[in-house]
Amino acid sequence: MARGRPSRQTIYAQLDEAIEDLRSRMGGLPSPAEAEAIWSELWHQEAHHSTALEGNTLILNEVRKLLDEGRAVGSKELKEYMEVVGYGAAAKWVYGQAMEPGDWTTGDLLSIQEVRTVHHEAMTPVWNVAPHPHATPAETPGNWRQHDIQPFPEGMTPPPFPEVDHRMTDWVNEVNKIREVDETPFPERLARIHNDFERIHPYLDGNGRTGRLLLNLLLVRLGYPPAIVFKNERERYLKAMRKADRGEYGPLGELIARAVTNNLYRFVVPAVAGPARLVPLASLVDPKNGVTATSLRAAAERGRLRAQKSENGTWLSSKNWLAEYERNKHRRVKG
Fold first, then answer.
1. Residues facing 280 on adjacent strands
2. 250 vs 126: CA distance, rounded Å
3. Tens-binned pLDDT, residue by residue, of the chain (335 aa)
4. Where is the Fido domain positioned along the sequence (predicted)?
5. Which of 29, 259, 261, 325 has the fewest Cβ atoms surrounding its Cβ within 10 A?
6. Which residues contribute to the annotated binding site?
7. Which conformational region is residue 147 in: left (phi greater than 0), alpha (psi within -120 to 50 degrees), or beta?
């Protein structure tokens, strides 16, 4: 029988299990100082995909060159390079601030000052070369909008600008309650918080980028890897946001849960797990050497790769077992 798409509850359970394993067996999420390579790649990926969701056309290699070397490779408009520079600076600030908060923070999960700082970091470089055409001097990066926003084509209408200040105060207060016991699945609570920010639309421009950065600030502070919405998921993300506008948070919660779990398996677990530690097969994937999730699963199911199934049905193996499988496979091929 063909395997169907896992249910939303299964996806949530897989995330819970993976995070518990990260905390109990691997010492939790490593800091940027402890695992610079992990955070560097997450930084590149997030800056690329989050700006691409807004129409930026730089490819991933161009983003790496720009962020690592300050080289503007290619022949794109200056505005596009500055979008990536700003987002990259903001993401780096978010990761560092999430793991090691500055002295001026309130001690809460999030503060209004941090919300303003994230927008200021993300938008200042592009604002310096291409400011919003309708912006007043009071609407520079980090400052709430002083304009009303026209209704979106899908029907969502942000509140009038005089309401933004108290709406954002209420939003931050809700964010700071997320650790409280609640029957709603955690990814859907995150989805509601993320969507509420976008519905308030506190800034004249840059709300999507700022909202995704703030979502990741919360995730990392709570011990989760950041969520990266890949550019090829743009339509699914927007559709899920439209459903969330109507109070249906499941699709967006599922997308967030998948994104966090994927980053955990792809970047974090391979770097912090020892060679004998059992990890999901997704953490052992190595496309450069032809090691795919499909081939590993097939090998595990046929008993050629030593592996175990977790309680939720996820196949687990280790770097040592994979190396043993690779050695035996090559011997069989030569024979």
1. 316
2. 34
3. 345 688 999 999 999 988 998 888 778 888 877 778 788 889 999 999 999 999 999 999 999 999 999 999 888 999 999 999 999 999 999 998 887 776 555 678 999 999 999 999 999 999 999 999 999 999 999 999 999 998 887 778 999 999 999 999 999 999 999 989 889 999 999 999 999 999 999 999 999 999 999 999 999 999 999 999 999 999 999 999 999 999 999 999 999 999 999 999 888 888 777 777 788 888 888 877 788 888 899 989 988 899 988 777 788 888 888 888 888 876 644 44
4. 110-258
5. 325
6. 205-212
7. beta
